[in-house]
C-alpha cells in the first residue's frame, strides 16, 4: 500500500515520512544480512532482526509479510547486486573466451571475498531457499550466456546445447564457490580465478 504524501507535521528529525521508512527498511535488510549470514534460518526471528536494526516490529510488517518474505527479498537484492557488478565488469570487446571470462570471474570472486556476509547469503542458506537458488542459477546462466555468445558461435549454433552447457557451467562454478565460502575463503582468490577460468574455457571449447 502506498504511503500518503508527506505534509505538515510529517517531517521528524529532518526526514520525511518516506525517508524514515526507507531508512528503517535499509536497517532491517542490513541486520538480516548480518544475522542470516551467521545463523541458520530457523535460529533467526523477526524480533532478532528488529532488535539489531533498532526498528519496532510494527514497522517491520510495513515492509515484509514475515521472515520468509524478508529472506526472499534479501536473497533477490543481494544476487541482483552481484550480477549487476559482474555485468559491468564484462569487456565490451574480448577477442577470446579467456579474455571475456577472466574479468567477470575475478569480479565475482573479489566481491565475495570483500563481502563475506553477502557471500554466505548467496551460496550458503537454508534448504527452503533451494527453489530460489535454482532461479538464481538460471539468471546467472542467462547473463553469462548473453555475454559469451559472440565468442562461441559453433556451440551457439545448437541453442539447446548452448543453454544446457552454460547452465551446467554456472552450476559447477557455484558448487566450487560454495565449497570456498564454506571453508571461510581460506584459499587465495587469484588461483581460484585461474582455475575457474580454465575450467570454463575448457568446457566451452570441448
Molecular structure report:
The protein is mainly α and 206 residues long. It has two domains: 17-64, Orthogonal Bundle (Arc Repressor Mutant, subunit A), CATH 1.10.10; 69-205, Tetracycline Repressor, domain 2 (Orthogonal Bundle). The protein has helices at residues 17-38, 46-53, 57-63, 67-89, 97-114, 116-123, 130-148, 153-156, 159-182, 189-205. Helix 5 (97-114) packs antiparallel against helix 10 (189-205). 22% of the residues are buried.
Classification by helices and strands: mainly alpha
Helix content: over 70%
Q: Count the domains.
A: 2
Remind me, CATH topology of the largest domain?
Tetracycline Repressor, domain 2
In whole angstroms, how far apart are the ends?
52 Å
Q: What fraction strand?
A: under 5%
- The tally of beta strands, per DSSP, is 0
Number of helices: 10
Write the layout of secondary structure elements.
Blueprint: H1 17-38, H2 46-53, H3 57-63, H4 67-89, H5 97-114, H6 116-123, H7 130-148, H8 153-156, H9 159-182, H10 189-205
DNA-binding region: 45-64
Region (Disordered): 1-21
GO molecular function, one term: transcription cis-regulatory region binding
Amino acid at each position: 500500500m502506498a504511503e500518503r504524501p508527506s505534509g505538515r507535521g510529517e517531517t521528524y528529525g529532518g526526514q520525511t515520512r518516506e525517508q524514515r521508512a526507507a531508512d528503517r527498511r535499509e536497517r532491517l535488510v542490513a541486520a538480516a544480512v548480518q544475522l542470516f549470514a551467521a545463523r541458520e534460518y530457523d535460529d533467526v526471528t523477526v524480533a532478532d532482526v528488529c532488535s539489531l536494526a533498532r526498528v519496532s516490529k510494527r514497522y517491520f510488517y510495513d515492509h515484509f509479510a514475515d521472515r520468509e518474505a524478508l529472506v526472499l527479498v534479501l536473497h533477490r537484492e543481494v544476487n541482483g547486486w552481484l550480477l549487476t557488478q559482474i555485468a559491468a565488469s564484462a569487456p565490451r570487446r574480448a577477442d577470446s573466451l579467456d579474455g571475456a571470462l577472466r574479468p567477470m570471474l575475478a569480479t565475482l570472486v573479489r566481491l565475495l571475498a570483500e563481502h563475506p556476509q553477502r557471500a554466505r547469503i548467496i551460496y550458503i542458506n537454508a534448504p527452503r531457499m533451494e527453489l530460489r537458488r535454482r532461479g538464481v542459477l538460471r539468471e546467472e546462466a542467462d547473463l553469462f550466456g548473453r555475454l559469451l555468445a559472440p565468442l562461441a558461435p559453433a556451440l551457439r549454433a545448437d541453442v539447446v546445447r548452448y543453454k544446457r552447457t552454460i547452465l551446467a557451467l554456472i552450476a559447477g562454478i557455484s558448487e566450487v564457490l560454495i565449497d570456498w565460502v564454506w571453508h571461510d575463503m581460506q584459499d587465495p582468490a587469484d588461483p581460484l580465478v585461474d582455475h575457474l577460468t580454465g575450467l570454463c574455457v575448457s568446457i566451452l571449447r570441448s
